[in-house]
């Protein structure tokens, strides 16, 4: 790669770079050879980095005005909304930013699922991503507790009580998490501390995630290994930077729509009522991005097994690279997988929908079927499909389907027209 | 290398590791234990409630250790209903006689044993309580009858200080 023989032009640059090779790193990042066929689904990595930085900056500024105390937290949030200069703007960006973060991460994850980005040699990138996703959920959950509204309080109560399902030590763990006999001030202060810490842990993991990515390089829509650099690649700057920048701009329009026109649509009105340990709201519903897992939790009639099912639904993703036995990465060349992929997307959307509905009657039945299918997809369909599926011929390079001149050309053309 | 030398090294290595491990554990434990309930939380261990105004068929809800406690003055029908249930019909078999020493008074934590929500009074399929969060039904003795909760609502330690005062905790 080019950075091996990189040498800064200026004398000062050379002097500095010999002592701390930051300029070599910068050169690696700008020249980094990227597959030239990356589509817009690949721009969400950059968008997610933007989301993380937005949350950290707005979070830091909110922390300057927020008071982490059970008697004052709710009022301090109202103080931010009414009195602090632009407090409303910063808080709405932060609150909706969490939703935008999850929107982007779900697209990012489903991109990986479609194009097989989790497969060898990118398993570590994928697992780091799952850990980041878990930390995001923890951060989002604890952040939601901080305004100390009714949903904050009861969400915290329900989620921490999940640990009470653990045999023998469960109750002790819950008391330890609470720092008392119920969710109260000690719980709030520690959640604030952890909510402050986690984004920086995520930041560190993002560095590892990108580092691990830069070892094999990006996967691409065709899903084949490519030579780097070659005629199949373009340098990251300016090609990908411009493309990511344009996608980010589009994303920010959606973001701004929520912040300015519908800042509360993704939240719950109940959270504008101060926490009351005596009354549980009639319908406790988590934030939209957790609904599919909530539906899985409620679809199992046993407490412990419900918790186990919910956690398994997330952790099963970590072993996905070994559950998917197909050597072909991209769903473009996997006609059967492509159909199952879309069924899975629908299945997760259905789980999200029933997760928001009361757990009874038809909704409960649908939740159970959808939960069973979710696990069926990962535990049965994917392993079997790798052996049974007749995949389409894969081109030898990214350039080939465009320029022709290979034995695979006819097949590639045929495929291309099918995709359209 | 002579055998003696290796042994000496091994001893130093093992001893150092052992001391290091004990030291690390001694540092980690306070860090973990500081999250457990502190002295001020533990100090709020009991509360006294005046129940003289409570008429049969009504429930008083009081806060104890940050959790709601239901004090139900039961009607004769409710008592009969609770006491006539067969043990084999119960998910978590407990006699009503053991849960309500004085049959007229049922005192229990108003906390659903599923995930900790507060169940609603006079609701559900068993005329007792119903948890709106995940649909657990409790009977007139606060015992779980239907839904995901694994246990009956917990009866805390309590006593009648006099005719009209209950001390919880």
What's the short version?
Chain A is mainly alpha-helical and 420 residues long. Chain A has helices at 11-19, 22-31, 44-63, 73-82, 87-115, 123-145, 150-161, 170-178, 185-214, 236-261, 291-299, 303-315, 320-323, 335-356, 361-388, 400-403, 409-419; strands at 33-35, 233-235.
Task: Please give a handful of descriptors for the protein shown.
heterodimer, A: 420 residues, mainly alpha, two-stranded antiparallel ribbon, 17 helices, 2 strands, globular, B: 169 residues, alpha+beta, four-stranded antiparallel sheet, three-stranded antiparallel sheet, elongated
SSE pattern of chain B: HHEEEHHEEEEEEE
- Helicity level of chain B, as a percent range? 25-40%
Spatial strand sequence of the major β-sheet of chain B? 5-6-7-8
> Which spans of chain A of ≥5 residues are poorly predicted at pLDDT below 50?
none
Compressed to H and E, one letter per element, the order of chain A equals HHEHHHHHHHEHHHHHHHH
Instruction: Find the structural class of chain B using helix and strand composition.
Output: alpha+beta
Q: What would the principal axes of the Cα set say about the shape of chain B?
A: elongated
Largest sheet of chain A: 2 strands, antiparallel
Major sheet: arrangement of strands of chain A: 1-2
Count of β-strands of chain B: 10
Instruction: Measure the end-to-end span of chain A.
Output: 35 Å
Query: Could you tell me the radius of gyration of chain A in angstroms?
Result: 24 Å
Poorly predicted regions of chain B? none
Measured by residues with Cβ under 8 Å of the partner chain's Cβ, the largest interface is: A-B, 37 and 25 residues
Largest sheet of chain B: 4 strands, antiparallel
Your description of this structure?
The complex is a heterodimer of chains A (420) and B (169). Chain A is an all-alpha fold and 420 residues long. In chain A, 64% of the residues lie in helices and 1% in strands. Chain A is built from 17 helices and 2 strands. Chain A has a two-stranded antiparallel sheet. The radius of gyration of chain A is 24 Å and the shape is globular. Chain B is an alpha+beta fold. Chain B is built from 4 helices and 10 strands, in the order H-H-E-E-E-H-H-E-E-E-E-E-E-E. In chain B, strand 5 and strand 6 form a beta hairpin. The longest helix of chain B has 31 residues. The chains are: A mainly alpha (420), B alpha+beta (169). The interface between A and B is medium-sized, with 37 and 25 residues.
């Amino acid at each position: 790669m080019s950075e091996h023989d990189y040498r800064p032009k200026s004398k000062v640059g050379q002097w500095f770079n010999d002592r701390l090779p930051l300029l070599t790193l910068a050169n690696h990042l700008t020249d980094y050879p990227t597959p030239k066929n990356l589509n817009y689904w690949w721009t969400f990595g950059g968008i997610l980095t933007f989301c993380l930085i937005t949350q950290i900056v707005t979070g830091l500024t909110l922390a300057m005005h927020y008071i982490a105390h059970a008697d004052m937290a709710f009022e301090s949030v109202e103080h931010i909304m009414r009195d602090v200069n632009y407090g409303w703007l910063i808080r709405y960006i932060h609150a909706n930013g969490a939703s935008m973060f999850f929107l982007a991460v779900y697209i990012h994850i489903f991109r990986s699922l479609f194009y097989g980005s989790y497969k060898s040699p990118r398993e570590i990138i994928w697992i780091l991503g799952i850990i980041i996703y878990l930390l995001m959920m923890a951060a989002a959950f604890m952040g939601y507790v901080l305004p100390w509204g009714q949903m904050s309080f009861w969400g915290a109560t329900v989620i921490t009580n999940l640990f009470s399902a653990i045999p023998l030590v469960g109750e002790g763990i819950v008391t330890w998490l609470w720092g008392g006999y119920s969710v109260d001030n000690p719980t709030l202060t520690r959640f604030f501390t952890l909510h402050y810490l986690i984004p920086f842990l995520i930041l560190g993991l993002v560095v590892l995630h990108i580092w691990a990515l830069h070892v094999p390089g990006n996967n691409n829509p065709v899903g084949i290994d490519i030579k780097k650099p070659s005629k199949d690649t373009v340098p990251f700057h300016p090609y990908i930077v411009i493309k990511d920048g344009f996608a980010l701009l589009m994303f920010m329009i959606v973001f701004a729509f929520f912040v300015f026109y519908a800042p509360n649509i993704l939240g719950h009105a109940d959270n504008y009522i101060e926490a009351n340990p005596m009354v549980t709201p009639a319908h406790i519903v988590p934030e939209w991005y957790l609904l599919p897992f909530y539906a899985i939790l409620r679809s199992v009639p046993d407490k412990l097994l419900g918790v186990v099912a919910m956690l398994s639904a997330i952790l099963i993703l970590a072993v996905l690279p070994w559950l998917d036995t197909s050597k072909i990465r991209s769903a473009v060349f996997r006609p059967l997988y492509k159909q199952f992929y879309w069924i899975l997307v629908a299945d997760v959307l259905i789980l999200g929908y029933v997760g928001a509905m009361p757990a009874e009657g038809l909704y409960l039945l649908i939740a159970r079927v959808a939960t069973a299918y979710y696990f069926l997809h990962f535990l049965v369909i994917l392993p079997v499909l790798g052996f049974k599926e007749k995949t389409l011929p894969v081109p030898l390079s990214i350039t080939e389907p465009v320029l022709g001149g290979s034995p695979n050309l006819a097949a590639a053309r045929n495929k291309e027209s099918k995709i359209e | 290398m002579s055998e003696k030398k290796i042994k000496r090294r091994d001893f130093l290595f093992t001893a150092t590791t052992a001391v290091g491990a004990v030291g690390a554990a001694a540092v980690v434990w306070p860090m973990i234990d500081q999250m457990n309930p502190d002295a001020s939380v533990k100090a709020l261990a009991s509360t006294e409630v005046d129940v003289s105004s409570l008429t049969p068929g009504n429930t008083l809800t009081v806060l104890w250790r940050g959790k709601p406690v239901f004090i139900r003055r039961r009607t004769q029908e409710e008592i009969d209903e609770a006491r006539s249930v067969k043990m084999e019909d119960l998910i978590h078999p407990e006699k009503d006689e053991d849960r309500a020493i004085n049959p007229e008074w049922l005192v229990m934590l108003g906390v659903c044993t599923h995930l900790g929500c507060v169940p609603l009074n006079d609701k559900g399929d068993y005329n007792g309580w119903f948890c709106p969060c995940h649909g657990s039904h409790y009977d007139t003795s606060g015992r779980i009858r239907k839904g995901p909760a694994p246990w009956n609502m917990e009866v805390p330690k309590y006593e009648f200080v006099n005719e009209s005062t209950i001390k919880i905790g």
